[in-house]
Every structure is written in C-alpha cells, then in structure tokens.
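During the first year of the project, the team set up a workflow for recording each protein of interest as an amino acid sequence followed immediately by a discrete structure-token representation. This format lets reviewers and collaborators read both layers of information side by side without switching files. As required by the reporting guidelines, we include two representative entries from the current panel. The first entry is reproduced here exactly as it appears in our internal archive.
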Amino acid sequence: MKKRTTLARMGSLPLLTLLLIPLTGVAQTLISYPGPLTCADQSVAARAVRTPKDAEVFIQCAYEYVQEMGFEEARRAFHEDERWKSGPIYVFVAELTPVPGASRSIVQPPDPSMEGKPWGFLMDDFGNDLMSEFYRIGSNFGGGWIYYAFTNPVTGEMEPKATYFRKIDWEGIPAAIGAGIYRRDLPGTCRSEEVNAALLDADPSETRLQEFVRCAAMELDSEGYFASVSLANDPRWRSGSIYLFGLDTYGYTFFSGSPANPIIGSELSSIYIDSFGGRNVLAAADAFGETFLYYSNHNPATNRWQRKVTLVKRVTSFGVPVLIGAGYYLD
C-alpha cells in the first residue's frame, strides 16, 4: 500500500460496497468477535484467504503467533513467510493513537520503508481519517471490520477493501494487527473486467465459477426476463466452452448460451436426467439454493464428451424461481 494523503474517489462502486456506505458518511464497521476460536481450531494461510471468515481466522492465527513467537520473529515472518504474505493478502501492524495523523506504521510488508513513520492523514471516501477510525474501533470494541479504499499492491490501483483487525500490545504500544480482502474477494463483486466467461475459460476453478454464476444471478434478479438475451449472447457471459443457462424448477429451459443447441440448451434439462443416474439434481439445487454438480457432457468447443463441473444457483426473478448455472470442462 502506498501512502496517500487522500484516498482517491472510486467512481462507480460495486453493489456490496454501496450497501456498506452508511448514511452518516463515516466508514461503517461490522464487529465480529473471535470468541473461543483459536488457531488450533482453524488455520488459514495467506494464499487461501478469500472470504471475510477466512480473514478473521487468518488474523486470529497471526495474533496468536505474536503471543507465542515474540515480536521480532513475528515481524520477520510477516515479511518473509508465505504463510503470512501472498499477493494482496498480508499482515500489517499499525499504532493506535488518539492523536490525528500521528499513527505510525509498525509492520507493512508491501512497503517496509513506511515502518516507523506516521501515516499522516488518510481521509477515506466515507468522510473521516482512516487511522482515527482504527483507533475508535480498537479502543471501544477491541477490533472489527473497516471498509475503505486503498492501494492494492498487486494491481497498483485504488480499490475498495474490507479489513479485519484486532487490538494488540506490540512492544508496549497499543496497535492494530489486521489483514484485508479487496473487492473481487467480496461476495457480490461483479465488475465485468474481473468476472467474465473469457477469464473463467482461461483459468477455470470452482472459485471463479462461483463468482461467474453469482454475478449472472444478480443480473437476472435485477433485470428479470430482459436479462436473458444478454446472459445467453453477450461475450461477457459466453466464451469458448463457457456459457450460461437458465431453467425453471421442472427442468424446462428458460434461456441458454449453448452454441450446440440453444433451444434445448442445458444438459440439466429433463431429457438428460440419466446423466445423474436418475437423481433429481434440479430438486437438490432448488432446495439448497446453490449446488455443484459433477458429470460428463458433450463439449461443443471440442466436439468431445468430457467431465464437467457445473454450479447451479437458485434465484427468484420477479416472483418466479429460476435455476441459473454454468460450468467448465476438465480433461
């Protein structure tokens, strides 16, 4: 993270970020206490931090690591060990002080030259000094969540960031130990340049598939029937072997981007039920709201039968339940 005197305006913020902006203009916080949770119960490394819960467990483990190993070893580890530093995920430590602009950086792996220096005033987009907000929450609640914008060390761009921290005594100095996740890791993030069929086709994974289907479901939920044309045909939602489909809960196709047969469209239609040994996978998807399915299907991009991983999500669009899904091929 680079030092900035003012955090740049984000322009068009994603849906989740907008939901987190309080009416008062002050950065909103969500307190989540670790309680009896210890790192022995759950542990997560930096490379695996993807969700808010992951961030909470990650910082609980970092907090315990300091208590167990001491300050110097913790400082070294936070800078050097892959367990604590991976891409945009890292552990930071910052001084908590009531004096505006005086909070010093203690551990800052992306920019060690900042360590020992005051952050100065960091006015966030929600109307207050960021470090003062850390002090307010740390002093009154012992830690929690803060939402703001900051420089992503991987992209070099200012991005909305949700940070979880705990208050810690660092060599006699009241401090915050924390880590944050950037916009694309927050549920509900749907920037087209970050979530699209081409990226999923180039680098398929269950995590990317979840992002893709959830974003499509949000569009269907907000636009209703009118979204079906773009979901079936827009290049954002259709690339190579990646396409979206929508069914009703009886298995009848609502829309499909399948280049093989856009009329029948989905391998989850009732005529394909034998692919699952007679199991009613649509009923399961309807009951659970979001399900992964594993089966073999004809890949229109290769003209071969291949194993496929599909995610199906239930969404109610204008009062009508719809199962929207997509998948990627293996082999």
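The second entry, processed by the same pipeline in the following quarter, appears below.
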Amino acid sequence: MPEVTYLDADELVINMGPQHPATHGVLRVKLKLDGERVTGSECIIGYLHRGIEKIAENRTYQQFAPYVDRMDYVAAVTNGMGYCEAVEKLLGAEIPPRAQYTRMILAELQRIASHLLWLGTHALDLGAMTPVFYTFREREEILRIFENYCGARLTTHAFRIGGLLYDLYDGFEKEVRKFSDMFLGKIDEYEQLLTKNRIWLERTQNVGILKAEDAIAYAVTGPVLRGSGVKWDVRKAQPYEAYDKVEFDVPVGRHEGWGDTYDRYLVRLAEMRQSVRIIRQAVERLESGPIFGKVGKIIKPPAGFEVYHAIESPKGELGYLVVSDGTTHPYRVRVRPPSFVNLQAFDLMARGHLIADVVAIIGTIDIVLGEVDR
C-alpha cells in the first residue's frame, strides 16, 4: 500500500506528557493540531504497567487482595471491595449484615474522598487554586477515619474475602456522623466558589461534549456516562452489599442526550451529597453481630468456576473476572477498570477544541494511570 501522509504545512503533531501535571499521571497524549485547534489525538499508555493481572496467577486468592489497592490508588477501598465480592461470589459465600453496612460506609467515604481529590486538582488545572485547599481539608477527615480503622490512609486494605478483618473501633459511628453533618455545608462552599463563577463556566460549558449514544457505544460508565444524561448506576441496576436496602438517587446531567464538562462537574457534586445520604442510613442500620462469613482459611473454589462481578467505583463500573482451576491460586483474573475504558472517549471529546481545553477534558474524565495501565 502507498504511504499515506496525514500532515500538510498547516498541521502539527505534538506530545502532551507523559511528564505533564495536567495528564494526571504518566499519560502521553499525541495531539494533531491545526493552529491551536485539535483535529485528532491518540492516548499512549503503558508507562506505569506493573502486570497486576498476571501476578494474580502466582498468588493465592488472599495474597492477591492487597495488589488491587494499588490500581486506583485514590480509591483503594472500592478496588478491594470489588475483588473480595467477586471471590465471594465464586465461593457462594454470604456476608453478615454488619460487614455489609461497614463496607458500604467505607466505600461511600472513599467515593467522596476520590471526588474531592478530583475536584481540587481539576479546578487547579483550570486556574482555580482555592478549591484544592478546601477539598484536601475535608479529604483529610476521611483519611483519618480510614487510618483509625485499619492503619492505612491511601492504599487502604480494609476488607478481606468473607467480610472484615477488623470490627469498628469505639467512636467510629460518632466520627462518621460528625463528618456527614459537617460535609454538606462544605459542598455548598465549593459551589459558591465555582458553580456560577464566570471563568469556570467559560472553561467547562460546551467543552468536551459527549452524546449519550456515543457514551454508550464507547462503553463509558460512571459520572462521565451520567453526565450525558444516561441514568445508569451499578448500585441501582445490579445491587450488591446492602445498596438495595437504602434510598438514594442517581444524578444525571442537565441536558437530555448529551453532556459537557460542566455537567460532569455537577454530577460529581450531586454524587457526594447522595453518598452522605447512604452513609447516614448505613450507620443507623449497623447492628452488633459477626463481621465474617463462612469462608475457610484456605480458599479453593471448584475447578472450572468463572464469575464476573462489577461494582460502582468513583470512576465508573469496576469489574473483576475470576476463573478458578481447583487450586488455591486463581487461573485467571481480568480487571475491567473504568479509567481505562472511559479514556477511549477522549479523542471524540477533544476534537475541535483548543489545547487549553484538552486539560479540562482529561480532568473531567477523572483518570488514574495506575488503574489504566495496571
């Protein structure tokens, strides 16, 4: 075949990253430009690849659990919950109610902490410095609860296959209630800074438009999908733990059939409010009882069993495929990370925008490269 030339004298190809603060990790974006306007892009990944899925084949089911905490390292709790639930589903194990509600509380706190990190850094990318100090202030309160519970702040290994290793410490419920009461007012502060801010509106509205049909076609999930008006949340559609026993709403964007960077911002703010709502209900339903189900010390599922289990992580649908071969090691573990899948919509969202808008679009997807590369 003859060689095809894509560039003429007016076009330019540049690299953005992998050493660039606004790519939120070691992401290299190859931008094709006409002046300052993006006419095409290619996301080049793999700089942080650690072979986590292959490592699973050489570890026992229990030994592999801490590795998943290192994928989305700002949402370690939900990573661990998804993996533990997948293996429990493989075993057919039932988890006691106290463990279920504890998992939900910690997972929703993690969702808030992840969204706070996203909001602070996203605003910083677009030139607003104050929000990052506000959001890290509240995130610190959540990390303090994690640290008191299991000793870790970031890669929080909170759960075990079968339930919990640690019961709740004295004062846990009081601290969680205190945070919930305080936090809703803090969200109002973030909105006062940004929601009607003229510069914020100009940088986010009609930027990174994603139609609902395109979001579905690209298998986008999480706030990016809901920002385009698609009301899909794994916690509602395929409930796990005790999410079917609590009341909460699924926020969507302002428009019907499409969404922009501003819509995804509003969805994440609304999600944090809904997380507080879930946390309050879960705390009230905490009852004394066992924290571990009937799971043996040696986990050895029957050969040929296979399960796919998905949860709603802060960034979207996080799924685990686990295949057993009758030994204490999984035959295969495959992760469906939302950051990786959502990133493929970047090119569609970036075309026609300026280089400065690329920063806003990468930020609005909310990627973590540890999860993208694995």
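For the second entry, the following points were noted during internal review. Strands lie at 11-16, 28-34, 37-44, 159-160, 163-164, 210-211, 258-259, 306-313, 316-324, 330-336. The chain has one domain: 60-373. Both points are flagged for discussion at the upcoming steering committee meeting.
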